Amino acid sequence: MKIYGDKEIWFVTGSQHLYGPKVLEQVAANSQQIADGLTGSDKISAKIVAQPTVKSPDEILEVCQRANNDSNCVGLILWMHTFSPAKMWIAGLKALNKPYMHLHTQFNAELPWAEINMDYMNLHQSAHGDREFGYIGTRLRQDRRVVVGHWQQDRVQQEIDDWLRVAMGWAESQTLKVARFGDNMRQVAVTEGDKVAAQIHFGYEVHAFGLGDLAEVVDAVSDEDANALVDEYLQTYEVAEEVLKDEHQMAMIKNEARLEIGMERFLEKGGFKAFTNNFENLTGLTGLPGMATQRLMAKGYGYGGEGDWKTAAMTRIVKVISQGKEGGTSFMEDYTYNLGTRDQVLGAHMLEICPTIAAQKPRLEVALHTIGIRKDIARLKFTGKPGPAMNITTVDLGTRFRIVVNELDTVAPPADLPKLPVASALWEPRPNLGIAGAAWIHAGGAHHSVYSQGVTTEQIIDFAEMAGVEAVVIDNDTKVRTFKDELRQNAAYYHLKQGV
Length: 500
What we know:
By secondary structure, this protein is an alpha/beta fold. It folds into two domains: about 10-175, Rossmann fold (3-Layer(aba) Sandwich); about 175-495, no CATH class. It has helices at about 20-40, 55-70, 90-95, 120-125, 125-140, 155-175, 195-200, 210-220, 225-235, 240-245, 245-270, 290-300, 310-320, 435-440, 455-465, 480-495; strands at about 10-15, 45-50, 75-80, 100-105, 145-150, 175-180, 205-210, 240, 275, 300-305, 330-340, 345-350, 365-370, 375-380, 385-395, 400-410, 425-430, 450, 470-475. The strands form four sheets. The protein has a six-stranded antiparallel β-barrel. It has a five-stranded parallel beta sheet with strand order 2-1-3-4-5, with helices on both faces. Strand 3 (about 75-80), helix 3 (about 90-95) and strand 4 (about 100-105) form a beta-alpha-beta unit. The longest helix has 24 residues, at about 245-270.
């Protein structure tokens, strides 16, 4: 079973009737072999399913419409084995509402120099068949990923997998439901936004609930269920002996178990895969969920603090894209700086950092929470795993959305943090904090982000293109002056793209 279960990527090969039945039989056989080879590769995370060779406008339109209506079809890989006149593709590509990747490959890797003849040339002519097809995609102004190289090469298969993962994330976004418990943090701007516009562009829905709706489910959790989950906590995490002997701390851990069970039941019943809450709006709850939220994120749920539904949705989407990959994904906040020889950012939040990013086994602790509510709350404490990472934020600019990416290098803290009662990650933004911080601020990037070590910059760009929204990247090549010019040029482009 592939990582994404029954979800499929369709492999559609273009040709034409001009070549006759024998050539077309070979085209179909080669296409099936490529699809089977890709499915059989351990680098490919989903089934690649060959479709009948398309040779006419009607056949192309039919397969595109069929893809649109097949819930298991997440996207298409399109390849021209021979020459496939591109006017045939216009109706199909205009009707297609699933993402597609253009694979510029050929069946054989090397030319048989001593035997090559015109029959071989007519069969293996992706070199110009794909250029004809590429023209019509550009003429239709369609954003798409183009992967070039032999289909058996590791690099090519990795690029295919990177793209199909984004297609899985895009499919998730189309059906994603975000539960919003309470409202936005008062007076905060960047976590607000147009939910209707977000649903138009990204597909996901945002549903608001009063705290009483959730509290009723949490209160119904039995002692037996809560105690069973506490036992799981004690077997999974490091817990100090003094905690086990402290009746109050154990009660706070059990309280967290009730919150986790209640929230998960609420989310499962409503089909929600992401959620938000707000420390300013906890009426009816026993406190701000700490470890409960951390563990739900580790199970794959998206989360956004203080009502940040855009980050909650993006956290879930990135978790889907990175499913089965090394490197975790978490809700994150740039919290405070370490300014010195190498400027660094200490990322954290009040409680809710996902343990999938941990460098070591998380430690279960109970500590006083003093923001919004003064209460002892159980939480998991750890530091982030060193290595490449990125912060991703989605902001609503009023007339459009922008996704901002900053590539990072996560490092081990130079000293222990014995008095910091929350999980954290320490990173050095690329190219440095001076440039990255200025560029992030010029782009309007939020103080919340999706922190991930499981996706690539190109994948987030692919996702933005599928959504038809702007993406800007802050990396080792960024210079503030040229970055500001890029923002101005993008503003003009996306304004014109929307029409009058």
